[in-house]
Amino acid sequence: MKNYITHDEWCIVENGFHPEHNEITESLMSLGNGRMGQRGNFEERYSGKTLLGNYVAGVYFPDKTRVGWWKNGYPNYFAKVLNACNWIGIDVQIGGQMLDLNTCQIEEFSRVLDMKKGILERFATVILPGEKRLKIHSKRFCSMADDESGAISYSVTPLNFEEDFIITPYLDGNIRNRDSNYNESFWNEIERETSENCGYLILETKENPYGVERFRVATGMRFTATVNGVDVQPESLPFETEKYVSASIKINLKQGEELAVYKYAVNLSSSNYEAGNLLDAAKSYIARISEKGFEQLYTEHILVWADKWAKNDITIDGNVAAQQGIRFNIFHLGQTYTGEDERLNIGPKGFTGEKYGGSTYWDTEAYCIPFYLATAEQKVARNLLVYRHKHLQKAIENAEKLGFTGGAALYPMVTMNGEECHNEWEITFEEIHRNGAIAFAIYDYTRYTGDKTYLPEFGLEVLIGISRFWKQRITWSKDKNLYVMLGVTGPNEYENNVNNNWYTNYIACWTLRYTLETIGGLWENDSKKLNEIIVKTNLQLNVELADWKHIVENMYFPYDETRKVYLQQQGFLDKEILTVDDIADQRPINQRWSWDRILRSCFIKQADVLQGLYLFEEDFEPDVIRRNFEFYEPMTVHESSLSPCVHGILAAGLGLKEKAYEMYVRTARLDLDDYNNDTEDGLHITSMAGTWMSVVKGFAGQRVKDGMLVLNPYIPDQWNSYSFRIGFQGSWLKISVKKQEVIIENTSEKALALLVNGKEVYLEAFAKTQI
Amino acid sequence: MKNYITHDEWCIVENGFHPEHNEITESLMSLGNGRMGQRGNFEERYSGKTLLGNYVAGVYFPDKTRVGWWKNGYPNYFAKVLNACNWIGIDVQIGGQMLDLNTCQIEEFSRVLDMKKGILERFATVILPGEKRLKIHSKRFCSMADDESGAISYSVTPLNFEEDFIITPYLDGNIRNRDSNYNESFWNEIERETSENCGYLILETKENPYGVERFRVATGMRFTATVNGVDVQPESLPFETEKYVSASIKINLKQGEELAVYKYAVNLSSSNYEAGNLLDAAKSYIARISEKGFEQLYTEHILVWADKWAKNDITIDGNVAAQQGIRFNIFHLGQTYTGEDERLNIGPKGFTGEKYGGSTYWDTEAYCIPFYLATAEQKVARNLLVYRHKHLQKAIENAEKLGFTGGAALYPMVTMNGEECHNEWEITFEEIHRNGAIAFAIYDYTRYTGDKTYLPEFGLEVLIGISRFWKQRITWSKDKNLYVMLGVTGPNEYENNVNNNWYTNYIACWTLRYTLETIGGLWENDSKKLNEIIVKTNLQLNVELADWKHIVENMYFPYDETRKVYLQQQGFLDKEILTVDDIADQRPINQRWSWDRILRSCFIKQADVLQGLYLFEEDFEPDVIRRNFEFYEPMTVHESSLSPCVHGILAAGLGLKEKAYEMYVRTARLDLDDYNNDTEDGLHITSMAGTWMSVVKGFAGQRVKDGMLVLNPYIPDQWNSYSFRIGFQGSWLKISVKKQEVIIENTSEKALALLVNGKEVYLEAFAKTQI
């Protein structure tokens, strides 16, 4: 836990420089726009602790796998999000001395991420040798409006001296991923060019033996300068060396004169441009944005944020820390994924770091889709589904590597391009419940949006592939006279290679049922389309559907008759049943205990049976949910960032308000307060959606039933009021929950009927109601 | 399977050069003497496929661990058997051209390992450019009599030409381990010296951050030369460079003249000499052996082998391949470990390669000890036990790292110095049955030798440490009202993290019982000594012994009432029960199937329940053994080299002669025929003891019951006769088994009573009997 970040409703504020936490601050203050992202690094050189990080969406490198012992079926490479060319760099030399905040005295310092505007700003006054006081002010953003560009305004003012300043904006491609498996560099230079006040660098990912696509990224920059607000055009001295271009200007500044540099940069990827044309594209992009100028770019950028906040803001009155926490989560989700490009996804660290490889986990389906469904245009969630459809063939190949046949699909645990990029057998090969989450997301989307086109167009093919996988993955137990699922790892990764994980068995059966229903529905409504899919997937109607039905009817689910709870897996009750209070001094167990001890303990890393009861709530009586919650929650250590929100939502539904609030607090400020001591590696982007869910699905009880939006809002005792905005099937609502009342406002043109506390409420366009 | 090795009773013969198999031949023809070992490399330079390998017993390096994902409790390093200075090298230049069998034409070639004498000999006639025919003859050994030295006789004869020959014997320390985790070099040079016809190189293992002992090794050489058998003393030109020393002589040879070089070398380790004194020690060692001269060294060496064979030879009449196979196994065991030094152990590859790290696995206790007990002096097996006693404190620390307390000891899965050197959690943390094998070996030794001193002196302390581990490792299952053991991997590594592995549960209870019995026995016979041990180990008699007894009486053992077989682990019958015949086209499964598929299949890598029935045979009725054998053997794929011998011994005991012979064939020529396609990495040294057991415990039914040697010999139909030699409590026997009779000869001065086919036989000193 760290507490150096100032509590503020809209801003993340570092008051006074904390060099010891600099990498944490850099993570917290990362900027992005869906296409590119940049950690909160300084523009000028900094010799202290820093993780320079610039990332271009969809650009990765297949880093050679590192394992202790190779197992058949492991992937050859681990696709790494690629740390790319540094585009923010501006060297400042004052009288021949390089400005470096690590070596000079700092008189004043603040770094502020304004989440309302998506702007990172820095104010500092530093003292250089000879008691020279220098003021620094920088401001930058990754433009949401022109989403392959960023802009920086960087100014210096000598407060009590006159000196020659050399200012050198540069692009530097000599960048390595900190977590490269063998400390290799992943970039080659293709081309570079400098002129006057411009520079361009085209880098390409190195050759690889895996046949993986190579990416080129063109980074370009141009800058202008003013002194006291007046344009100046001093002679610029371009310089080039391997993977580096710069241009320097020299200006004599008198005491009190402010030199401001406006640096415009672009990052264009060969995913979006013809590789041979990148340099030209970069030049014209740079020309276009620098012509707009900083102020116009800035205005266009903050307008996009204003529109986003209008759709997804949550306000909390009565607790600034909670307010800051929830906006922090929403802000990062919003700048990580915009839904414009169905080839992209939501990396576990977004654009804030490079730990873990790959960009896509089941987090997307289980956690992020509900957030985007409710807070963005329909196409955003739909694009996340299409992403998986695009990877269906790879998922089929992935399953084939593990011995499955006939179109069975196993989606990877971690991926960038559809290929598996994870290499712990207990996860890669066994944490197969991920396949179920991908099926569930199709249902979730269809239920929320009412969109009947996705299933026939894309979804059913995916469901058939996944159903085929489940069919082959289960085993008929002669001993039990039922189907069993052997050797899996459930969502609770503190168990490995267990038999009959209740959650996995449940979601497998659910998938089969949903696939059968979908086929049945299409049979009645569009048999022509169904026929196309049957032909395309070579579905053996008589055999396969009968098999699936037989499995649905004959699956084994571990259950304890005494306690009347589902068992997380077969044999769970052989464990010593303790509660987290019994090991209070030994947590987090993942940092204190050896793996075998964790495995044979009853302690649960993240919701498992409860994850199932959360997803499939409608299938279970409240009493059942309560009994299971009361059994499992006391042994859950929540050492996954994905866990507390699920427990929180269930607790809220069960009326366990204190528990629900405790869970909310755990998720909301996880990164801001560096709860897990790992924020320096980057933020936990995907679990941020869980924080949003804790409020909207938890406190406000948002659900969809029979095609209708449902709300059952209450207010935590700790707050005075809160409000949130959600969209539903074309309508947009603002819901304000106060101690005594709930106000629901339809902010859109489309009328909507919804259920609030069990009663139907009808809201005309722009109407408001009080409950 | 490869068949290029000529079948021969005493020799391993490569007739004609097989460069494509050179690394295999190098492994097969490795030489050793317990202190040092050398692969069957060429003396002269060879630019083809080769793995140069020279190993010095007990010398290792802590190579930084490489894992994909770090888990708490993993060791920081993996102790690697260290490839050391090349001492056999002799460069040959003829008219300025370097001799290299990879680039010249080969007219005749044979490489022969004479196992009777422990000599590697090579004959070749090669054709050099200009149709020059050159004869080469080399002969070398690692002296069994002077076990820190080796000697080489190397001669060349120009058959049809006259030329200047430059001969350069050298020592080269520029050697890397092929399997270094990060391709690092592990040696520094400390000192080097050359003079006339001598050279010395002192290397030290690099600094390491783990506080692991650094080793120095002094390698020294001296050489003499003759022409046509007459000493010559041409001027010698010494040369030195980093980690390299040499001395060259130049001689003009006329057609038909034979130049022979005799190279003497030593490898002295700082484990045995004061580090500062190594150079002097090497010089005086070299002086001593070179003074003896090649012939005397040779004679003394082969006398040691003669003595060894007199103790442990097995003859087989009727099948040369079988004869060669069994001697090959005995030979390598004999040169890997001599039992002189209780700090050493039997590495999985011995001195024949460097794959895997560490030198000690449970193979030593479960497989090698029975071999050394029966074929070597008592101290050899005893030293192997003492080795583990020396590591007791480390085993306690190892257990502490995993959260155990109060003197609980967990011996490592792989080790060099007592610290764990393995880093797959399912093995390192969970394959804990190894602890039981270490306890069992104490029993096995005591039973075989009748030595009553080992238990009080060393053994009981180890038993107490292991018993404490079992006590803490088990869990009381309220559900079963019995003790269970959760999260283990049994000997069958094709199951991971299972609950209640029958074998592990059994050996744990057995250990507790044996410890209790040992304490009880000592209580009666030597309560003073017992008291010392109680004080030393801080044993809480009332509490701990009562706990152990309660566990012994209340352990859960999975069992199938229908089939009346023990279940390998809880839930085994949920699997689809198939036989290996069902997957004949898919074997070996470890090369064809992904790990999850292997894990959820019923297929067994190596004996597991059957390993228990083999070790604890006396606890079970033959019917029980038969039922379990008939259940498990059909699903055992024997993809571990340690498996077939156990099945073979059980089969022999059950009268399943064909199965027993099938299993024997599988183990005996595993390396010779490169059955697993991995002989090039080195030989499977520890499983070689299993081959010996297949004959002696299998076909001949050797056992010990109530302190008496037992034999129940039969002869496989495929053989005419076989004989073997074993020692038992000071007597030495030769047992010859023929189609119609068994002849037992006491070759020692000590009379012996034994049970043969259930009847007592009494043999006076040097007496013989026919049965």
From TrEMBL, chains A, B:
GO molecular function: maltose phosphorylase activity
One Pfam family hit: Glyco_hydro_65m
Domain spans labelled Glycoside hydrolase family 65 C-terminal: 703-761
EC number(s) recorded for this UniProt protein: 2.4.1.8
Annotated coiled-coil segments of the chain: none
Catalytic EC class: transferase
InterPro entries the UniProt entry points to: 6-hairpin_glycosidase_sf, 6hp_glycosidase-like_sf, Gal_mutarotase_sf_dom, GH65_N, Glyco_hydro_65_C, Glyco_hydro_65_M, Glyco_hydro_65_N, Malt_Pase/Glycosyl_Hdrlase
Family: Belongs to the glycosyl hydrolase 65 family.
Identification of the protein by name: Maltose phosphorylase
Species, as recorded: Dyadobacter arcticus
Taxonomic placement: Bacteria, Pseudomonadati, Bacteroidota, Cytophagia, Cytophagales
